[in-house]
């Protein structure tokens, strides 16, 4: 049965949003910003309420019912209670849009995309929760490994640094993937929190189920990443390992062992989160880079995070 109680006030909408597991971790100010601009929408079963061909103007949070999302004739996902319709497209600034059809009678809270962008700019708890949700999704797509073992990336040793990297060298090493497009102040802050490691061949860096407070930027060497019960892949230089574990607020998704001597930069995820909070443009670039492959149904090779 559809929600019968009217959602008349901002307080009603805050209570409703707070009841959704997918929004857990968003603070009161963030929920208030979302609720203030959200409107209740009832969509009957079978109705197509979004059509491809233009950038989305609104996103929706499903309160009751199920929604099918397609893009260019391909099923993207089935969205159920507490999940969003159009968020991936909005985050990726996708010009194509999506086709969304109600599989059941649905109740949704609808939020204008421009308002959503303002919420991301003004409230970091919403950014942090979105990073968490997207990181879980990216790990799932990759079989909880650094990359899809069905499409393994090239494995290269890289160039082995002769000694300790200077700060300038650490700044240059931090410019990888989406961080290559970050402003220099953000890259300097990322590099400032890093420390150089040298790891001998054969050493276990971490095992599946360990706490995940740090991530690694591989500068030189090869590692073997494995999942308990099956699944493995080799990863080489110019890859960032373990960052999605920190983002998803979960324990290590896979074990990592050095196949060769390694040189890497290690950093705390909490410090990176502080960089995202200070440099909100970088956070939004990362969200777009994480959302795009989920929307397109493919992994993006230059987003070498895991």
Account of the 3D structure:
This protein is α+β, with helices and mostly antiparallel strands and 306 residues long. It folds into two domains: 10-122, Jelly Rolls; 143-273, Sandwich (Jelly Rolls). Helices cover 33% and strands 25% of the residues. The chain is built from ten helices and 16 strands. The two termini are 41 Å apart.
* CATH topology-level fold name of the largest domain: Jelly Rolls
Distance between the termini: 41 Å
Q: What is the strand arrangement across the widest sheet?
A: 1-8-3-6
Order of helices and strands: HHEEEEEEHEEHHHHEEEEEEHEEHH
Biggest β-sheet description? 4 strands, antiparallel
Total number of domains: 2
Mean pLDDT: 88
CATH architecture of the largest domain: Sandwich
Summarize, please.
The chain is an alpha+beta fold. The chain is 33% helix and 25% strand.
């Amino acid at each position: 049965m559809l929600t019968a109680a009217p959602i008349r006030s901002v307080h009603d909408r805050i209570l409703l949003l707070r009841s959704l597991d997918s929004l857990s971790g968003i603070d009161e100010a963030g929920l208030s910003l979302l609720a203030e601009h959200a409107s209740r929408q009832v969509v009957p079963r079978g109705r197509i309420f979004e059509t491809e061909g233009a950038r989305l103007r609104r996103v929706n949070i499903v309160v009751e019912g199920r929604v099918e999302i397609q893009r260019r004739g391909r099923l993207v996902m089935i969205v159920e209670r507490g999940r969003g319709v159009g968020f991936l497209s909005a985050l990726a600034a996708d010009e194509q849009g999506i086709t969304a059809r109600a599989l059941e009678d649905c109740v949704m809270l609808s939020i204008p995309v421009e308002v959503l962008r303002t919420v991301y700019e003004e409230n970091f708890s919403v950014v942090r929760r979105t990073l968490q949700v997207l990181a879980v999704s990216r790990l799932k797509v990759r079989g909880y490994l650094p990359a899809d073992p069905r499409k393994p990336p090239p494995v290269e040793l890289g160039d082995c640094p002769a000694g300790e990297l200077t700060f300038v060298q650490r700044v240059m090493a931090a410019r990888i993937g989406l961080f290559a497009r970050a402003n220099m102040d953000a890259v300097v802050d990322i590099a400032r929190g890093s420390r150089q490691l040298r790891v001998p061949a054969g050493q276990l860096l971490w095992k599946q189920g360990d706490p995940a407070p740090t991530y690694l930027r591989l500068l030189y060497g090869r590692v073997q990443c494995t999942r308990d019960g099956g699944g493995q892949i080799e990863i080489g230089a110019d890859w960032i390992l373990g960052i999605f574990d920190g983002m998803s607020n979960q324990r290590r998704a896979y074990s990592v062992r050095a196949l060769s001597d390694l040189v890497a930069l290690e950093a705390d995820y909490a410090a990176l989160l502080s960089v995202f909070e200070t440099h909100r443009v970088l956070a939004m670039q990362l969200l777009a880079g994480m959302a795009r492959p989920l929307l397109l149904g493919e992994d993006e090779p230059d987003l070498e995070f895991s």
